[in-house]
Batch of 3 targets.
Target 1
Amino acid sequence: MAAVTTDSGEIRYLNPPVLEVDREKYCRFKKMRMKHIDYKDPDFLMRFMNEQGKILPRRLTGTSVKYQRKVSRAVKRARHLALMTFVGDMLK
């Protein structure tokens, strides 16, 4: 990171310092004790998709393996029944 000293002796950074805050990832389905993920609720399933319509991976959402499979199955079922789009530009 490059720093510049001004005439008054003040140090200014060209790029702002990056402060990494690691949040604890958790599975929201385990926390809410959900047993079933409903494929008929596209608004809820949109939380697990990006702007292009792709399903977000576990490392980004923090979902456990068991529930990630259920989410992907529900998204695919909703797409097949035309409740959600397969591809989309700027869905959110």
Target 2
Amino acid sequence: MTTTGTTPTDHAPTHRTPIRRSRLTKVVATLGPASATPEMIRTLFETGVDVFRLNFSHGSHADHGARVKILRDLEAETGRPIAIMADLQGPKLRIATFANGPIALTAGQKLRLDLSKEPGDSTRVGMPHPEIFAALTPDTDLLLDDGRVRLRVVGCGPEHADTVVVSGTKLSDRKGVNVPGVVLPLSPLTKKDREDLVFALDAGVDWVALSFVQRPEDVAEARRLIGGRASLLSKLEKPQAITHLTEIIELSDGIMVARGDLGVELPAEDVPTLQKRIVRESRRAGKPVIVATQMLESMVGAPAPTRAEASDVATAVYDGADAVMLSAETASGDYPVEAVSMMDRITRRVEHDPLYRTIMDAQHPDPQQTAADAITAAARQVAHTIQAAAIVTYTTSGSTTLRAARERPEQPILCLTSALETARRLQLVFGVHAVHTSDCANFAEMVQKATRAAFDDGLAKDGQRLVITAGVPFGTPGNTNILRIAWVGAE
């Protein structure tokens, strides 16, 4: 095995722990009270977590800051880039409180919602959100308590709504409110979100997940505030966003299918088909897409999932999602390590199914009419034909690697980059094994580094081949115009 004589720069790692995932689909896990210690976080990383999510709906800045430090210390120790996602809470629409505890409901019962701060009773309750009243019209439905209570508006004004109960038997303090089919005049970024965003960016997170996206303007507002300091992931949890799906995907760096919230405002039977549509459209655009919410939810309190949950995870993998996500399973559950292990096992099993490769090969998006897309599409085909061990990309911004991942090759994508922030962000992307390295002076040096990294990290054995894409003049962003086959171990 030959190596180059270059010395890494000060910002590039001098060692790496050879951690290679034996799957292409990535695993996102949420940190919380059940996964807050350095020992547990290390175990989750070694078990299979590629991206760690910080849920800003819970926990203090001190909590999140401590977890970021643990992750960055682990990254420095192993030399392996680790991605951190800050998931912003977004607006939380809730009713107020009742004077004497929960009230009983019956179909046809009248219930007024208003802006009064007085505790509620069986005839009225406060709803401190004038923006909801501004958007209501008669015959609009309101869903409370995650859809357990449905009210229909029969009359409304700027400070109240008169409703009748359509379904539901009980209502208690501070239950959430959803307004299906109505675009609310609300920014997805509350005062709390803006404060959390500043903290997260200063802490150095790699991805920011934006909640309550309704319109392309919501994404544009967040992009302005982020200012390129992190990649932006739009959470699709409001049905209103689907009307602008193409534009939202175009403005975003990545997409999350937040099925739990979608399932509140949409009929349950609509969510699976919508999930497939979002994944398909994101893949076509070359944007990483996560399928999230309730994937292995029974493992919050049980050491094994239901068969239906295992099938649900498998479906997301068959759809070609870049990543699948764990929420309460790892944040507050009793079996966080087992949940990650199960997610890892399911994804590996699906990817070894011949049907999986048949599906992936049948769904390649048409390449754009550019040299870069033509070379990338050819790289996948060549890698398949010669049974290469990996496809290699060299990138600064990540665009070359994203293009390769869009092809959904059967081989891992070895990404070499001198930008640590790019290596971290690409951990979310299908099939990518990112290596942070020093700058390469020329194409020959890059080839030597690629063969060395592929061997050291277990992606290729001596004598196997790599398919390498690059651009000449070397180092010019977006100028992929060369395809080369290299032997691992060859001069």
Target 3
Amino acid sequence: MIVSSTEVQNNFGKYLDLSSQQEVVITKNGQAVARLLGAGKTASFLSDHLVGIIPCDVDEDDLKSERLWRQ
């Protein structure tokens, strides 16, 4: 759900309750500025930008040992 910051300010309790069910994106002047999520939900904001960059068949242990070997 996308709502303006003024709408959230005027009806904060409503959007606080909704955030436990779905993500609430808050906009200011038409630009997304924040996300409101329930406490039980997690979001990796960095991974939103990295999806598809690292192949899924990469072995993390091999990468770690290679990185440590270079140092």
